[in-house]
């Protein structure tokens, strides 16, 4: 089978694989071509029965894609399936693909951006694509292709040009990371949108990292309802309907049922799959085996040879293809990206190296260097230690006194502390212990991912330690040797 994998910017890569290969094999081939190691955030889309659906990575490709005419390849689109926070992205190519996918979604009108936000994002995109304003003037490009369709007019384009002029000298990577940080604060940043009906009203259902949000289906439609994953008891699909069962608010209350009517049965299955997978990826500490072995669909007749129709019953296919949660994906990607030994570690400084007055308590990401205080790090786009572009920074809180000499893990009391929990920012554990903690041991906050810290703390030589009987431990060892 021939495949053409299209990137968000329209560029295509062609591959040839046998039909018995899994969807994961196709994604691996595309990511290998682009040099992407953080593969768990991406997926492949294709058109089936006028619906855009995700290729199931755990099922054979031949059971999902209908046979094409001879000589015509299957066309799939490489897109971001799970939009995580920018500080979790460790690869340049991954951040580039996130940027391209978000820019495409802006041009398609997914986001209800304000005029000011559209101008800011348009200027940042121009800096990424064309460089400084003086270089842009020499091209035949137009700002309109970088803007939300709602704000495409001459007045806005003039404001974008003025904002672009003010970005003179900014590196393309810094402008891209600023773009990602601005977009990550948008309400629909991590959401997948579906068209549905509730009763007689047309709505848009946004399935995101925290749950479902229901909007009126019109320009700048108002938010009608928010359904968090913690309040969902069960999600069922019946023909063209998605049924969401909500938990009881009290012992005397009844179960609440929310019904969403989709355009077709395939659309209902797609939104059901999206709800289940987003809940697993963003809100679970691990994926259970019972979930991995969950079946729903059967092998379509056209996926089997004609001579087997009456001899071999159709086989069952996996319904969900999420094999790792958000946190497991980050840990796996970290090992893949830093397989050569990790980033450069710098010597620990308890005070901010810029103002020399406040505590160094800000962790630059994704590099993991700790050198500035919160006030000095706000305007920095480059890590002062490794000179790499910083997507953002995280405020951290030490479990001990930052001026003390004890930097051992508070759990195993053996290894050195080298991790910070996100989003709470507490620093108290080594990497091995952190992998087994679903919640922060200090504040009990659910850990979305564990940020590595590349800091060389002072060694513990114990030269001045004195034993309980008053003898110096080092001299005592010499005497008995």
TrEMBL record:
Residues 1-286 form the FERM domain. The keyword Kinase does not apply. It comes from the Eukaryota. PROSITE patterns: FERM_3 (PS50057), ZF_RING_2 (PS50089). Residues 352-387, 409-444 form the RING-type domain. Keywords: Metal-binding, Zinc, Zinc-finger. PANTHER family: 4.1 G PROTEIN, E3 UBIQUITIN-PROTEIN LIGASE MYLIP. This is RING-type E3 ubiquitin transferase. It comes from Porites lobata.
